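[recover] target loaded
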């Protein structure tokens, strides 16, 4: 036994030899200590911290809307790695129209008006993601990524910039490990009831920024991610396709341009990852619910056919997210998953993947009953599940507006940022002797106080 230990033979082998020696000589040996059975179910990916920055513009010509957005996101993961995602262009084209408009006089100087608008938008973007082993490595590349992107953007818009950067080349950056192409279709509407006023000599009413409003939005998107983090692995690149549905409801009020809005947003998504041979290697189910309270203020107003000025929004929200992930490592597991996808389609998400909205952390995942499908049993035995709560702050500033020139011309320019920190984190542990999997604390995914 000493020779085996000195030689560095794995513990499970030496334990087996020890048990055999005990049986050979008829002596009693204490069973070797077991490892933590929950360790195999620790989430492989869990977001500790996220920061986003964006800037963009929208141009209006009549009922049509065109836009472009730049976005950059940083993420800290529970395993210590950092991710940076750059979306240099998020193009948008859409159409907006007025559903109805009502106006009523409230004396000689006041008018109560209401209107509702609807719109539909198609968006498309391609984003690159770099993964770094720690914060120091990520920080050293951040400025290079921005400088390189600024050079690429300048050369695409101005041929003369190519000569400048030929003499002063931008810093080289590594190829992104992941690239994601996203197509999104979105539809929604806004309704407002507001008060307008004028003095005794004016002919037109002026919006004084007082009233109530509500909005609703539904959207769907498909994102295809190419992952080439292991170029020497014959199963790479991996291709992950995400199908997502989401919606939002909000209501608020304003008094003299200042107000509050309460909004709720939900998201449901399924992502199927396949290897180079086209076999499924991972399936992820995601659900999230976000509740926010946003403070709004604006300078400027709306007259007949025109509006403009400055708008600002600052908000705080709470986001609860649950992820259920099953890794398919053997041909048999991949067969079961493929058959389930073929039979159930994208809408056949198992109930056990969507029952992770915990009640004080006491929700349980129980063993499937006799006669349950192979996929349900596989999820129970193999899937890892994480549930987090994030505190999120955000702000957005918008400048510009629209003027009535027959064609309804206008432009808006905006900037925004947000930060999210994980303040609660749990994961689903290993199946117990009683057929239940219980949620355990996951401190590695908690963010440090900001």
């Amino acid at each position: 036994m000493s020779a085996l230990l000195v030689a560095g033979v794995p513990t499970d082998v030496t334990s087996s030899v020890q048990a055999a020696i005990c049986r050979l000589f008829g002596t009693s040996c204490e069973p070797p200590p077991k490892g933590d059975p929950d360790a195999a179910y620790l989430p492989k990916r869990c977001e500790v911290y996220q920061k986003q920055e964006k800037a963009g513009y929208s141009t209006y010509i009549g009922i049509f809307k065109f836009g472009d957005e730049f976005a950059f996101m940083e993420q800290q993961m529970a395993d210590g790695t950092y991710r940076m995602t750059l979306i240099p262009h998020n193009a948008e084209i859409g159409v907006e129209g007025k559903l109805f408009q009502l106006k009523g006089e409230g004396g000689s100087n006041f008018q109560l008006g209401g209107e509702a608008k609807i719109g539909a938008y198609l968006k498309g973007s391609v984003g690159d993601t770099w993964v770094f082993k720690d914060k120091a490595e990520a920080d050293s590349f951040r400025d290079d990524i921005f400088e390189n992107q600024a050079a690429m953007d300048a050369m695409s818009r101005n041929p003369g910039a190519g000569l400048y950067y030929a003499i002063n080349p931008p810093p080289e950056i590594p190829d992104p490990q992941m690239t994601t192409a996203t197509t999104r279709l979105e539809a929604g509407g806004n309704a407002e009831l507001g008060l307008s006023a004028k003095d005794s000599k004016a002919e037109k009413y002026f919006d004084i920024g007082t009233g109530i409003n509500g909005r609703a939005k539904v959207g769907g998107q498909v994102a295809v991610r190419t992952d080439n983090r292991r170029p020497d692995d014959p199963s790479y690149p991996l291709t992950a396709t995400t199908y997502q549905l989401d919606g939002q409801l909000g209501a608020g009020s304003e008094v003299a341009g200042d107000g509050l809005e309460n909004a709720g947003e939900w998201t449901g998504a399924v992502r199927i990852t396949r290897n180079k041979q086209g076999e499924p290697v991972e399936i992820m189910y995601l659900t999230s619910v976000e509740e926010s309270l946003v403070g709004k203020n604006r300078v400027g107003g709306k007259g007949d056919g025109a509006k403009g000025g400055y708008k600002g929004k600052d908000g705080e929200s709470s986001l609860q997210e649950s992820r259920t992930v099953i890794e398919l490592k053997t041909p048999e597991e991949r067969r079961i998953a493929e058959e389930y996808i073929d039979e159930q389609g994208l809408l056949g998400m198992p109930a056990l993947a969507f029952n992770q909205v915990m009640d004080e952390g006491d929700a349980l995942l129980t063993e499937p009953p006799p006669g349950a499908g192979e996929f349900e049993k596989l999820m129970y035995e193999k899937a890892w599940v994480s549930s987090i709560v994030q505190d999120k702050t955000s702000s957005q500033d918008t400048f510009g507006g629209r003027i009535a020139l027959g064609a309804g011309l206008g432009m808006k320019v905006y900037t925004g940022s947000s930060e999210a920190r994980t303040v609660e984190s749990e994961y689903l542990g290993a199946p117990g002797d009683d057929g239940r999997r219980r949620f355990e604390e996951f401190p590695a995914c908690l963010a440090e106080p900001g």
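[recover] notes: The mean pLDDT is 82.
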